[in-house]
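Entry type: protein chain
Record version: 2
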Amino acid sequence: MKVDDGAMEHALKAEQVAGVTSRLSRGSNQSGMRAYNERLVLSLIRQSGALPKASIAKMTGLSAQTVSVIMRSLEADGLLQKGEPVRGKVGQPSVPMDLTGAGAYFFGLKVGRRGVDLILTDFLGRVVQQVSKKYRFPTPDGVVAFANTAIGQMLDDLPEGGRDRVSGLGIAMPFRLWDWVRQFSVDYGEMSGWRDRTISDEIGKNWDFPVLLSNDASAACGAELVFGDQEKPRDFLYFFVGYFVGGGMVLDNVLYTGRTGNAAALGSMPIAGLGDSPRQLVDAASLAALETALQSGGYDGDMIWEAPGSWDLPEDVLDSWLVEAAAGLALTVLSSACVIDFECVVVDGWLPVTVRTKLVARINHQLGEISLAGIEAPSVREGTIGPDARSLGAASLPLSERFLVDRNAFLKG
């Protein structure tokens, strides 16, 4: 008997997504848990793609009736939409349900050392609008003014009804900016204004949606978690190589930011073996170090702040930076593995894909050269988001807050 191609494809997909449930908590049929169950359904579909009700019921342990109620509610709210029916050998065809791009919108504001970016994404994480501004160094007044103006313009450009579906603004920025005056090459007074300002509160006063704040590298890690390759271990360490290098940490499929929101501040980690005295990782593996090397060689350091795809760097300068950056990152990976037994490390950044590939290869090579008794080095792989990870990570903050499973809140409740 010939098996229907659509049914076979559906069966294969069911096998592929079967492991997703093990990465999420199972559902509850008890009253009062509907908000959690809705988040669970949306999280499963986001990770696995379109799914029929029967598959969701099987994966979550929810009753078919409970799943039907949830799916109808999410469809009525414009968050889910029906796909093409899939016919099996017997019975009624199953109808997969998928996320609706226009179901919700999210702003993501990235405050960088050399510029600020605002993006608007849809429910699928696709960038709908984007605007950027360059500067020599960030100031609170400049960032707040830019954000409020750009948000107003983007809201005006949304289709009818779109404004009501904006679910929040996430802000990704380095914490304690006033501590980095040396690296910015500015006077302390020019950065001290950040000490007493909370721009998330200032911007939030102007809008009727929530505003969330995160360390920029942690936000980039969140983008990898929500929008990136879903075939990653439950626990992984993350590096984003930008003007400075920063880190993020995922434990049990949850972005862990710690008591002050600054967990995995890996750029500040002391490293040894690269000179006569210990330095911080930021001194070796940041693009600020690459910019300095370019300027010392008589080249224009500003070239690396254009789109990464347009880089045209002298090979000797780039290679020297890669050697030192990889050595520093490898030492940081091993130091971190002494604390938490990570299976995987993800490296991304404001880098051309070819440079990111070379950097990851060199880190893995360095790990193979360093013998550290009692420690098994984790594997290092490339990130899947790229240069926009911080902006997308910022936008993922309100998405996760409102629509995805928060396992910690569930367990506490």
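Comment: Residues 1-22, 407-413 have pLDDT under 50 and may be disordered.
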